[in-house]
Amino acid sequence: MKRTKLFLLILFAIGINTVYAQESVTISGRVTDFNGNPIDSCWIGLDYTDFSAAYETYTDKDGYYSLNNVKKGKYMSFFALRMKEYPRRDEVPDEDKRLEFWAWNVIADRDLTINPRYHRLELYGTNAFRVEGGYRGLFIYTRPMSTGRLLVYSKDLQLDKAKSEKEMDISVKPEFFRVKVFIDDKEVAVNSVQQVQEYVGKDNPGMGGYIIQTELPKEKPDKPYLIIRVVAENLEYNETGENIYFYELKDYEKNPKN
After folding, report:
1. Average pLDDT of the chain?
2. Would residue 142 count as lying in a domain?
3. What is the distance of C-alpha 144 from the center of its chain?
4. Does the residue 196 lie in any domain?
5. Which is more confident, 203 or 232?
6. What is the pTM (predicted TM-score) of this model?
7. Cα(92)–Cα(11) distance, rounded to whole angstroms?
8. DSSP category for residue 153
């Protein structure tokens, strides 16, 4: 009788663990610069849709990280940042300062590998959309932010978050902006890159962004979303940056022949 109870308890525990495993995933990878050098002590975070923290960890000495037991679902963003290098902290020399890496609209429906690379150009607020009934391509919006442009301003302004967000323009000028787009790790054609002026209210100019029109891959996707990677350069300050966006496919997009 005791053996029967023990056996049932073991089966119950296995069942619970199996169900739990089916409802959670692991997000892991390695953080490096654009020369492949690892970034240790890098803060890794996954945010809920209200931008509150969901899961956090740090990279090890070789740049590796792992977010374990992540509940399946959609998350607003994933970021990578070594805090001591963030300009507003002012803890390292200007030449060692850099901003952040971001991934947006993260769909954690399976184990994911995200390998952030980041330098001094941050691509923020990225989104992607199609114009219904139009050309079979994607429009990608992103807002590049330059560390070099930021460091032109006074130290007092750099360190004042509220004031800097109103008075500093750290966007990239069109003549210096270069971009490539990869969808599911395959480079796609970029048909146009157009600058957009954002506004905070009706008459108050904000930061500048870009709309990038790309082709779509011809291959049928093997999952219900595309992973878009935008890699950009700011030639004015010799800066590089990239980010990722998870583009969720509509039913009619899951077969590219339609």
Report:
1. 89
2. yes
3. 12
4. yes
5. 232
6. 0.87
7. 55
8. S
